[in-house]
Amino acid sequence: MAALSRRALLGATIGFSVLPGVSFAAGQPVSVVATTGMIADAVRQVGGDLVEVKALMGPGVDPHAYRQTRTDIAAMVQADLVLWHGLYLEAQMEDFLIDLGKDRKVMAAAEGLSPELLIAHEDYADKFDPHVWMDPELWALVVRNVQTALTEAHPDAADQFAANAQAHLEDLAQLKAYSADSLSSVPAEARVLVTAHDAFGYFGREYGFEVLGIQGISTQSEAGLARVAELVDLLVDRKIGAVFVESSVTDRNIRALIEGAAAQGHEVTIGGELFSDAMGPDGSYEGTYLGMIDHNVTTIARALGADGVPATGMNGKLGVSG
C-alpha cells in the first residue's frame, strides 16, 4: 500500500458520529435496529444487556435485494439508534436510510473504512465490495465502529461497552488464527472457491484462495450462459471436484455447473452450504458472527482436502444449538 501499511490502517480509528441528544429512562436498554444479522450480532456483543436489538433481515435473507417494510419503518423511527452496514450492501434501502439519517440517529457501520483496505467494485469506480465480514480482522474495525456509535448514544455506559468490545475482539483474533491454520492445510492446487456470487473476495485475499462467483458482488447482477459455460470448462480443465451453495442465494446456477461438468464426464459435488450474506438459524452457534465464519472456514477446509480440521469447528460448537 502506498501511504500506510495494511497493519497501520487496520489499527486506525475510523471517524464518524451519530446524532447527539439521546435520553434514556433509568434502567432501560438502548433500543437499536440493525439491518443485517452480522451488525445485530456486533451490537449484542458490545452492548450486552444494555441494549435491545432488532435485526431486520433474518437467516437466509439477501440484503442486496431487501426492501424495508412498513413494520421495519415503524421500528426504525421508534428506535434510539439505527445501524446499517453501508458500502451499498443494502442497495434497495440506501436512499431511505440516508433520508432517515437527516433527523434520526443512524449510522453505516462499515462506511469510513479506508479504501486501501477495500476491494474495488469491477464495474463501478466509486463502489467497493461490501462483504468485509469475510475477514475477521476487517470485521474488528466494524465492531469498533459499533462500539463508538453505542457510546455516543449512551455515554454513561462507555466503560461497559469498551470491556465488552475488547472481549469480542479477542474472540475475533482467535477466529482469525483458527481460520489461517485450518485453511493453510488445504493443498495449494485445491485453493479454488466456486460459489453462487462474489461474496468471498476478502476471504480469498486474506487466505490465498482463488474465488470464482457465478454472479458478481451483488446478487442482483445477472449470471449469463457464457459465464456458466466458462466456469464449467474451468471445473473440468482444472479437475475441481467441489463447489459451494449459499444460504441466501438460490442454488440454481450452482446446479447448472454440476450438470454441465457431468455432461463433459467430470464429477463435481456440493462441498457444503456457506453463509454469505446472512448468518445461520436464530438461536444456533451458526446464528452468531463467530459461528458463521467458523462454519464457513471449517466447511471449505474440509471439503477441499485439509487435514485435521474437526467437523465441530474452532471450539467444538458447530451443529450445537444455543
Summarize the structure.
By secondary structure, this protein is an alpha/beta fold. It has helices at 6-11, 37-47, 70-78, 94-100, 136-153, 158-184, 201-207, 225-237, 252-263, 289-303; strands at residues 30-34, 51-55, 81-84, 106-108, 192-197, 210-215, 242-246, 269-274.
Work out the radius of gyration.
20 Å
Which sequence of SSEs, written as H and E, runs from N to C? Answer: HEHEHEHEHHEHEHEHEH
Fraction of residues in helices? Answer: 25-40%
State mean pLDDT (0 to 100 scale).
88
Distance between the termini: 42 Å
β-sheet strand percentage: 5-15%
Give the count of helical stretches. Answer: 10
Question: What structural class do the secondary elements suggest?
Answer: alpha/beta
Domain tally: 2
Task: Kindly report the spatial arrangement of strands forming the biggest sheet.
Answer: 2-1-3-4
Shape: globular
* Biggest β-sheet description: 4 strands, parallel
Provide the low-confidence segments as ranges. 12-24, 217-221
Please count the beta strands (DSSP E, at least 2 residues each). 8
Question: What is the CATH first-level class name of the largest domain?
Answer: Alpha Beta
CATH architecture of the largest domain: 3-Layer(aba) Sandwich
CATH topology of the largest domain: Rossmann fold
CATH H-level superfamily of the largest domain? Nitrogenase molybdenum iron protein domain
